Amino acid sequence: xxxxxxxxxxxxxxxxxxxxxxxxxxxxxxxxxxxxxxxxxxxxxxxxxxxxxxxxxxxxxxxxxxxxxxxxxxxxxxxxxxxxxxxxxxxxxxxxxxxxxxxxxxxxxxxxxxxxxxxxxxxxxxxxxxxxxxx
Length: 135
Hints:
Blueprint: H1 18-34, E1 63-67, E2 73-75, E3 78-80, H2 85-95, E4 101-105, H3 111-123, E5 128-132
Parallel strand pairs: 1-4, 4-5
Antiparallel strand pairs: 1-2, 2-3
């Protein structure tokens, strides 16, 4: 039997990767140049500066919600939980419907608790403001 020799057995087809890499780099540059860089907006936790105006004499009393550094919550000096703040505030607002709520938060208080109280009061259309607790 005669053996046939194939001259092309040692040659393998190769794919030239250079044009594909060029295209990938061009696409990368295109997406970097055309990408829009968004700046995330956050909630500013710093309270506004104190007002220089004297309080009005005939205004309704303010309901004070305090959150101390151990994350304990008080409504007008009475201890309560964060979940029961809306009930306590609603009970006080039944006597003075125009009363606003002032949240006084300690620096070490958890922001999640403060925001949860804030959101619950705002969702019930109760006017709310926040200030930093004086130490």
